[in-house]
Amino acid sequence: MSVNEQVLRYPIPSEAALEPPKEWAELRGTCPVAHVRLPSGDQATLLTRYEDVKEVLADPRFTRQLNAPDAARLSAEGGGVFSSEFAAIIPDSGEEHLHWRRLVGKWFTAKRMAALRPRMAQIAEDLLDEMIERGAPGDLKASLGFPLPVYVICDMLGVPAEDRDRFSYWSDTLLNLTRYSKSDIDTAQAEFFQYMSEHVAAKREQPGDDLLSELIAVGGPEDGGLSDIQILVTGMALLVAGHETTANMIGKMVGMLLADRGQWEKLLADPKLVRTAVEETLRLDANSGFGLPRYLPEETEVSGTHLPKGTTVVCSMASANRDESVFEDADQMDLSRSPNTHLSFGAGAHSCLGQALARTELQVVLEVLLRKLPTLELAVPVAELERVEGLAVGGLATVPVRW
């Protein structure tokens, strides 16, 4: 039976951790607006072509209101981070959303990232020294991929790094669509909320040189700032978004570059390729997680297909990034590919606020690894790498390496 005639289970499983499901190419070719069944049992509409995904992500009619009564539930437990009441506190659209992005975005400029670079490199060096001391084989995800972004985002928010294990648990519960029960998720949210409430209150008393202190200093809504609850939820959102995605991407990036040792050799021979190599691994990431769900409060059409009011759309940026009509040899890794207009960070007014941070972290990790561990290689065959299951953000369970 072709993909046109069936309702596919979503997320679509893949046979290998770093490879895309074979259905993507078929969907892009013959059924770019497809019906899928989510983990909750509800139906949604899946978009797989580049132009369609880009159009929907940039179209303000497609909203993040996934808690609307007729929206599809992503999972039986309710959909974690996408449809919690916290998601509704940060303005979703219009002038309020732009205002929020302007206030928070000041902390994610290229200039700020350049200033953070030496600190990131030092963290990466220290973490690698510890991994080397423990001896090979090591797990690059646990030793470097996971701790580095947590240290960085904790620095930016003025949060004690020793609390990072709690954050990783809270993030996991908020981003996992299948692993935790509703009561686990509710408890984690309540604990996280309480923690951030106390943290924001402490910053009010004793401001520091960090993002939350700066947001507090602007004043409340009447002064052009954010309300207390918005500052608190912004802190929570940045902690979750700012570490889980990049932590997983570091592991996948290194896994992809070591899967074909020739790619690693190219980087060793020409480290100037680091910037474009990072973009290419972002584009080729076949395991980026759920994709971006959007809710449609009015009817419209995409790619000539009518979408009724109340449709929940899932945008697969990972499939769009392999669209042959946009990328030449789309399934091949080309470390010098430029331009590389991938959609890994979304598009339009909701494109990822932290993309400069993620890019900088990925570049720094690669630079430090190439310099310190040129003999790095996977300690298991590529076929034995395993995905993390259930996460809204895709990742590898471990990245075993030796050197």
UniProtKB/TrEMBL annotation:
Alphabetized UniProt keyword annotations: Heme, Iron, Metal-binding, Monooxygenase, Oxidoreductase
CDD domains xref list: Cyp158A-like
One Pfam match: p450
Co-factor(s): heme
Statement: the UniProt record of this protein carries the keyword Ion transport: no
Signal peptide: none
Top-level taxon of origin: Bacteria
GO MF terms, alphabetically ordered: heme binding; iron ion binding; monooxygenase activity; oxidoreductase activity, acting on paired donors, with incorporation or reduction of molecular oxygen
Family: Belongs to the cytochrome P450 family.
Protein name stated in the entry: Cytochrome P450
Native source organism of the sequence: Nonomuraea solani
Source lineage: Bacteria, Bacillati, Actinomycetota, Actinomycetes, Streptosporangiales
